[in-house]
TrEMBL record:
<keyword id="KW-0503">Monooxygenase</keyword>
<keyword id="KW-0349">Heme</keyword>
<dbReference type="InterPro" id="IPR001128">
    <property type="entry name" value="Cyt_P450"/>
</dbReference>
<keyword id="KW-0408">Iron</keyword>
<keyword id="KW-0479">Metal-binding</keyword>
<dbReference type="GO" id="GO:0004497">
    <property type="term" value="F:monooxygenase activity"/>
</dbReference>
<dbReference type="InterPro" id="IPR002403">
    <property type="entry name" value="Cyt_P450_E_grp-IV"/>
</dbReference>
<dbReference type="GO" id="GO:0005506">
    <property type="term" value="F:iron ion binding"/>
</dbReference>
<keyword id="KW-0560">Oxidoreductase</keyword>
<dbReference type="InterPro" id="IPR017972">
    <property type="entry name" value="Cyt_P450_CS"/>
</dbReference>
<protein>
    <submittedName>
        <fullName>Cytochrome P450, conserved site</fullName>
    </submittedName>
</protein>
<dbReference type="InterPro" id="IPR050121">
    <property type="entry name" value="Cytochrome_P450_monoxygenase"/>
</dbReference>
<dbReference type="GO" id="GO:0016705">
    <property type="term" value="F:oxidoreductase activity, acting on paired donors, with incorporation or reduction of molecular oxygen"/>
</dbReference>
<dbReference type="Pfam" id="PF00067">
    <property type="entry name" value="p450"/>
</dbReference>
<comment type="similarity">
    <text>Belongs to the cytochrome P450 family.</text>
</comment>
<dbReference type="GO" id="GO:0020037">
    <property type="term" value="F:heme binding"/>
</dbReference>
<feature type="binding site" description="axial binding residue">
    <location>
        <position position="415"/>
    </location>
    <ligand>
        <name>heme</name>
    </ligand>
</feature>
Length: 471
């Protein structure tokens, strides 16, 4: 028994310089469990379905978030779902789950469609080159803010909230790009600006929480509930009725901020890569446009897409699933061993070791995927070996086909926003391809991923313009 073998010496610089290449080389040279020292941390890189399943699902009780290297917490997200552990996490997850059930997510679809329609009818209505990553960052921020706070986030308040979130996210981007984690309390100018932004957000969010508590106490009726309403009204079914209580203001604040952090950038990255891949294969965009046209023809004239259409756009959904396969925004998922654990004979992980599971490698492994680096949405439309439906229907169950597809993670800590993200990205991509054509600008090469905490691009410049009308 021992620490898995791997490259000698501290490899932090190599990882920081080109994480994707580093992951590929480590697996090629040392196999699916590669032990390596990174910035003086003992780390095991895991890149096979059976080991990923053990870490994320079967042996999940032996792993935790606390102590995981390279996944820093932040005062913005506090002790929300992304970073908490144990009973604190379990209770918060139970309280939050109902706000992400299918029926709840369908009520947030209205703002997804509004934002998508505005993007194509305004910003993207004239032919020209646009940084689609910047546009999607704005769009997904507006969507998540409106899903969280509904009609309370308009006008000046929307500007204040969105401005403070953007300032904080830019800080995270700069922090990740340096490859060094400077503590948030250190007296640097960047930290000062970030902490100011968090303070502004706290004022707004605590203000919204107490207003809602007052509205509820006054018995005010509401139509569609937003995420804040649902989290405020949630009580823990596992607690005895006499004690059943909801979240404190601090817990609510931490979850709201966590949802913004976890739900905004990942979705912007996914949509940006989907558009970039479609610009390289314009026939995929044409197929989406046809799929949307046929769907709308089955509705009364003048109808637009709605939440219920999500499940009627199989090709569009396949394009999103395929983008998540070759460009997973969360390309590595981290855990820290909370006790000694033997993952399989001779793969021994000692307490305190960070394990980095790499969906990026597994989802491109030729053992499980034909033509693994090609964008082939059709692969999701074949008959599933697991059920009566297509492979797409089973894509997001457990760890996916052959345990080799888990862009939203797996096991108990699977992304709570999976349904939200799928609804958002399928509806937006459908609206975009219905109205617009996407092409690479002349003389440019396809954008390359840049791996930081997420697999984000620097910018994705595409030639965007109205789709010619069919006669
Ligand atoms: C394309 C979009 C998204 C991707 C690729 C993604 C990916 C992931 C992954 C891989 C995890 C698991 C992390 C781990 O195991 O350590 C996760 C967790 C999480 N995600 Fe997402 N996510 C996306 C969108 C969203 C959205 C839209 C929301 C909310 C509105 C959200 C909220 C969360 C939260 C709260 C967690 C922590 C869950 C827990 O530990 O209980 N995500 N996400």
């Amino acid at each position: 028994m021992g620490f898995p073998s791997g490259p000698a010496g501290d490899r932090a610089l190599e990882l920081a310089y080109d994480p994707l290449r580093f992951l590929e080389r480590a697996r090629a040279a040392h196999g699916d469990a590669c032990g390596v020292t990174l910035a003086r941390e003992s780390v095991v890189l895991v890149s096979s379905p059976d080991l990923a399943r053990k870490v994320l699902r079967d042996e999940n009780a032996s792993f935790q978030k606390d102590g995981t290297a390279f996944f820093p917490g932040s005062s913005l997200a506090g002790n929300g779902l992304l970073v908490s552990d144990g009973e604190t996490w379990a209770r918060q997850r139970r309280l939050s789950n109902p706000a992400f059930r299918k029926a709840a997510v369908e009520t947030y679809a209205r703002c997804m469609i509004d934002v998508g329609n505005r993007l194509v009818s305004q910003e993207w209505s004239k032919r020209g080159v646009r940084d689609v990553y910047a546009d999607f960052n704005d769009a997904t921020l507006e969507i998540v803010a409106r899903a969280l706070f509904g009609a309370d986030v308009v006008g000046e308040r929307a500007n204040r909230i969105n401005g403070a979130i953007k300032d904080s996210f830019e800080f995270f981007g700069r922090r990740a790009a340096t490859g060094m984690i400077i503590p948030e309390w250190a007296p640097t100018f960047d930290n000062f600006r970030y902490n100011e932004a968090v303070k502004r957000l706290d004022e707004e969010v605590y203000g919204l929480i107490s207003k809602r508590r007052r509205d509820i106490a006054a018995g005010e009726e509401k139509g569609d509930l937003d995420l804040l309403d649902r989290l405020l009204l949630a009580t823990d079914e596992e607690e005895p009725e006499s004690k059943a209580s909801g979240m404190s203001d601090k817990a609510l604040r931490d979850e709201l901020m966590t949802l913004m952090v976890a739900g905004q950038e990942t979705s912007a990255i996914l949509l940006s890569w989907a558009c970039a891949l479609i610009s390289e294969q314009p026939e995929a965009g044409d197929k989406i446009a046809n799929e949307v046209r046929e769907l709308l023809q089955s509705k009364p004239p003048g109808s637009n897409l709605d939440a219920g259409d999500y499940s009627k756009l199989p090709y569009t959904e396949a394009c999103i699933l395929e983008t998540l396969r070759i460009r997973p925004p969360a390309y590595m998922v981290g855990r820290c061993a909370s006790r000694d654990v033997e993952l399989r004979p001779h793969v021994f992980i000692t307490k305190g070791t960070t394990v980095l599971v790499a969906p990026y490698l597994i989802q491109r492994d030729p053992k499980y995927w034909n033509e693994p680096t090609s964008f082939k949405p059709e692969r999701w439309l074949v008959q599933s070996p697991y059920s009566d439906g297509t492979l797409a229907r089973d894509a997001l169950k457990n760890l996916g086909p052959n345990d080799a597809y888990f862009p939203f993670g797996g096991g108990p800590r699977v992304c709570i926003g999976t349904g939200f993200a799928m609804m958002e990205s399928v509806l937006l991509l459908a609206l975009i391809c219905q109205a617009c054509e996407l092409r690479l600008p002349p003389n440019s090469s396809p954008p390359k991923p840049k791996a930081l905490i997420t697999l984000r691009p620097d910018a994705i410049s595409l030639l965007v313009g109205p789709r010619p009308r069919r006669t």
